[in-house]
Amino acid sequence: MKLTKLEKSWILYDVGNSAFTLLVSTIMPIYFNYLAGAAGLSDETYLAYWGYAASISTLLVALSAPVLGTMADYKGFKKPIFFIAMAVGAVGCIALGLAKMWLAFLVIFVIAKTGYAASLVFYDAMLTDVTGQGRMDVVSALGYAWGYVGSCLPFLACLGLVLGADKLGLTMETAMGLSFAVVAIWWVGCALPLLRRYRQRYYVERQPHAVRASFGRLAKTLKNVKKEKHIFLFLLAFFFYIDGVYTIIDMATAYGSALGLDSTGLLLALLVTQIVAFPCAIFFGRLSKKKKNSTLITICILAYLGIAIFAMFLTYQWQFWVLAVLVGMFQGGIQALSRSYFAKIVPQERSGEYFGLMDICGKGAAFFGTTIVSVITQLTGHMNLGVGAIAVLFIAGLLLFRRAAALNQGM
After folding, report:
1. Is the C-alpha dihedral spanning 18, 21, 26, 32 positive or negative?
2. For the whole model, what pTM was predicted?
């Protein structure tokens, strides 16, 4: 399938923002562990605080995304709001390199991750403007696929700076500061073609007092969404199963570090995740032409259920490598197919509004999942039990999704 210039530009933004995602899930928790350890925090406290910070950022986006998404549906609004959110994330990423104390680092991290996550609400909603329904599954999958492999380039540069800091004559703080700057520049650079080419095709006409009108439209949609049972059940299912996915992404390196696994090994294992995810995401995109989207999402949820159970018994380095490969096989598929599945069942001219609601479920779920891991870990003193709780969420998500799929025949 030949891609248009606009589709390529949209995919390129995934390459840019995925560099930040990879930094958050690999090097950043290890650096926070370094700052926390220097301040005398225990491993359990470090893991809990990192989880709470991730929870706060996702909660902020979950609360603001529906209104911002509704505003973005007005003619000419989507691109400017997307740019502002991306700029907050990129500037915050650079500012992380200036933080020398663990608490300041966490505060800036919350701001940067909030900007990053907010930009994705509008980016996902752009999909209906960028391509047609018949191409959505493939384009969405290619976004995640190229995001995984493309993000490896700045990651390798950052890894070289961090691991080779002594040979380069750099302190750990300086090496990390340069790494954050590299990622921010990569992120913004990859966003420029989309900012230049994107035009909002589907929209709601502007109204006086746009902010107040957005609240009114959102309230009306929230009342009606329960009547739109095929959308409501999918959102409910998505809340549960994506909870486990995001929690594994956010907490994997922190979990491995707290278990005392070798930091270099953890980083290389998660690099393998990105490499494995590239062909697997493309495979799921192509498979969507032959198999129903709902069948493929079901397979991914079942796979993640098995991954969550396996993670409970993680003890040795080689087990983390196996976990990294398994996550890579299904991570892109479940995210890409869920995005395109939802884009097909919602009104195109109100995609921002509905993707804002989807973000409540996605980010609200991530808040729920990371908080569960943090609280259970602190209460029991056993990290494995906190991670094991994720399996219950995949079971709930699977049952609800099958009900939603029955209402969305042919999807």
Report:
1. positive
2. 0.76
